[in-house]
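Exam revision sheet. Question 4 asks you to relate a sequence to its structure. Input first:
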Amino acid sequence: MTGWTLGIIGGSGLYDIEGLEDRETLRPASPFGEPSGDLTTGRIGSTRLVFLPRHGVGHRIPPSDLNSRANIDVLKRAGCTDVLSLSAVGSLREALAPGTFVVVDQYIDRTVARASSFFGTGLAAHVSMADPVCPRLAALAAEAGRAAGAPVVEGGTYLAMEGPQFSSRAESHLYRSWGCDVIGMTNMPEAKLAREAELPYASVGMVTDYDCWRVGEAPVEVEHILATMAANTSRARILVRELALALPADRPASPIDTCLDFAIITAPEARDPALMARLDAVAGRALRG
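Answer key, structure tokens:
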């Protein structure tokens, strides 16, 4: 067993983590291009944290332009053992009012313009996404959310849309008919890439608004979202602190830590050396084995 190094990907409104001891800035290079920004590392209690602002400082990167491969790669290179995503979402359910924190457990991926795998020709791999989040980390995040004073709902299906535009009313009703609970633009392919990197991943969707499915209501506008986002961000910062303090000193192994053992199917003699070199952090453990 080893200690935890918790990667935090901060979404809209969350561009820094306060209260870190031994604070340091890292600028790791990735063979997959530029990540969203520098990494900030430090400790809260005995837990090491590595923070990455998903959209960059000042929210300069729109969802379709996020380099999620580079983001996950640099978190892995920084020694992260687990990753928590915090992101703004719209609600597709009456019961999930603005201000609710939804600890997601399923996804429907409707993104179309993003690189969704580290693997490719010369090194093929197929990881399971049947259960796309880590139940252990998700449960811990839910408890931390309650400690932060947020109304927390455990479990929910996140519809990942391409964006950057919000949904049409017809799309919003369609997603509700599919059983989706919240909608956002950033958790995919992020969750898929975290799984390929053998990083247990959990996501807290912070509801900022009802999507546009409610009859007689005005459509979603950014100005309506920002006020709720400010309150959510304050609670998200407390959630991160409570989670870090709640993690035990030793981190028991997770099955996700070794999920590539049976996922890589390209024969060793047929593997592309250049692609293997790019995957030194993401898949180095499995490839060396």
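Marking note for examiners. The first strand starts at residue 5 and ends at 10.
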